[in-house]
Specification:
By secondary structure, this protein is mainly α. 51% of the residues lie in helices and 0% in strands. InterPro entries: DsrC-like_C.
């Protein structure tokens, strides 16, 4: 599933439009147990950072794939250890962005799954 649905509808943008951080925190609290994630202040800081990033960038289609967001979070939290820090906060084995989307109720991003992974003969 990509950001873009029928007629280039921006699914991610519409999923965050008019949503508050309070509502995002409530979603995270509700979904955390099913993903075996502890909704700590540090975890919520990462979710908040990505949510604000989406608010600033999805309207004009700057973030269309998961790779863009992984790099953004890695840089935003480089002072705490970057990717290693994020993987420790989100130890689901599904990746940081996919876990945040599941926690916050966001749709999947374009290129969330690499269909070309592996070797072609």
């Amino acid at each position: 599933m990509s950001n873009f649905g029928p007629k280039n509808e921006r699914l991610l943008y519409h999923s965050i439009e008019g949503v508050s951080l309070t509502e995002i925190h409530q979603r995270v609290q509700q979904n955390a147990a099913s993903l075996n994630v502890k909704p700590s202040a540090e975890l919520l800081e990462v979710v908040d950072t990505l949510f604000r990033h989406y608010q600033e960038n999805t309207e004009n289609d700057q973030c269309q794939d998961v790779h863009c967001d992984v790099r953004f979070l890695d840089q935003a939290f480089a002072h705490k250890g970057g990717g290693k820090y994020l993987e420790e906060l989100f130890p689901t084995g599904q990746g940081v962005i996919r876990t945040i989307h599941a926690l916050a109720g966001f749709p999947q991003l374009e290129m969330d799954i690499d269909k070309g992974f592996g070797t072609a003969f």
